[in-house]
Amino acid sequence: MAYQGVLDDIRKAVRLEKPARLPVFAASEEFDVRVAGAVYGEYNRNAELMAKVQIECVEKFDYDWAWLQVDDCIEFEVLGVGVRGEGDILPATCDYLKTDYSVLRGLKMPDPQKDGRMPVLLESIKRIKDKFGDTVCVTGRVAAPFTSTTLIFGMVETFSMMYDDPDFIFEANKFCLEMQNAFAVAQIKAGADALWVGDCNASGHLISPDQFREFAFDGAKQLAKTIDEYNGLSIYHASEHNLECLDIQADIGNHVLSVGPGRDMAEAKAKVGHKVCLVGNIDPIKYLYYADADKVYNEAKRIASIGSNGGGYLFNSGEMIPRDTPEENIKAMIRGARDAN
Prior knowledge:
With 341 residues, this protein is an alpha/beta fold. The protein has one domain: Alpha-Beta Barrel (TIM Barrel), CATH 3.20.20. Helix content is 51%, strand content 13%. It contains 16 helices and 9 strands. It has helices at residues 6-14, 29-35, 40-43, 47-61, 74-77, 101-105, 118-132, 145-153, 155-164, 166-190, 209-229, 243-249, 265-272, 284-289, 293-308, 327-339, and strands spanning 65-67, 82-84, 92-94, 137-143, 194-198, 233-240, 256-259, 277-282, 313-317. The strands form 2 sheets. Strands 1-4-5-6-7-8-9 form a 7-stranded parallel beta sheet, with helices on both faces. The chain has a two-stranded antiparallel ribbon with strand order 2-3. Helix 11 links the parallel strand 5 and strand 6. Helix 8 (145-153) packs across helix 9, helix 8 (145-153) packs across helix 10 and helix 9 (155-164) packs across helix 10 (166-190). The longest helix is centred in the middle third of the chain and has 25 residues, at 166-190. It is globular, with a radius of gyration of 19 Å. It starts with 5 loop residues before the first helix and ends with a helix. The relative contact order is 0.14.
C-alpha cells in the first residue's frame, strides 16, 4: 500500500541512486475511471468524483502515485479552442484558432484559480493530498510549450508555420510558457508533488531532432526550471522511442524522462541513463491489454529489473493504459515490478 518514504525514494532515483523501494506508477486514469464505475465526461468536471476515483484506485491497485492527466483540453478550451468528446470518450481539441498574429496577441492569459475546469483539477489535487499526505506522489499535468502551441493552432498549421513563419511559433511558445508556468505553480501550491509534462507533439514521431532543438527545447527547459524552483518534480513525456531524441530530451533539465513503449529500456538506459532518471515503459497495448497476466508479470519484472540496475529509474507504463484493460493484468504488472526490486 501507499508508504511513507515514496517521495524520498523518487528523489533518490532522480539523483541516479537506487531507491530503497522501487516506486511503481501506472498511466491508468482512463482505466481507473472505468473500474470505479464513473463516466469520464463527469469525472473530468467534478473535483470530488475525480479525487474519489483516484483514491479508490490507489488503494485497490497499490499505485505509488495518483496521476491526474484528466485530458489535453483544460487550459485550451478557455482560450476558445474547440473540444469534442462526451461520455467515456476522452475530450480532444478541435476547431483550432487561426494562425494569425492578431489572434495570438489577443489571447487572454487564463487564471488557474477561476477559469474553466482548471480549478477542478486544483481542488482534486488538494483533496488527494489531504488524504494521502506524503505516502503517494500526487501528480498533476501541464503541456510543454510547443505541444501547447499545436493544441491551440492545430498540428498541421503549427508544423507549416515552422517553415512559413517561425517567428509566429516562437511568439506562441512564449505565451504558452507563461500560461503553463502559472498552471504548474498553481498545481504545486494545491499539493502536487510532481507534474507530468506532456510533449507528445514534439516527439521524434512528428518532428526532427533539429526541429526539436529549434522550436521545443528552450520552452520545455524553462518550464522545467519553473517547476524545480517551486520544489516540484517534473516528469517529461513525449512517448519517445528515438534514441537521438531521447538524448536531446535528457538535457532539458526535467527530473525524470519517460521512455515510450517503442524503445527497449536497456537501450534507453545505455544511451541516457547516466544523465537523467528514466521512467517506463511496459507496452499498454501489446501486454496490458492483449497479453495474459503471466506474460504481463514477466514483462513488467524484466523491464523493472533492467531499469533498476544501477539506480536512476522508476517503473511505469509507456503510455496511457486502455480503458478496458483486464484488472488482473494491472495487478500482475504491479506485482512484477515490485518483485524486480
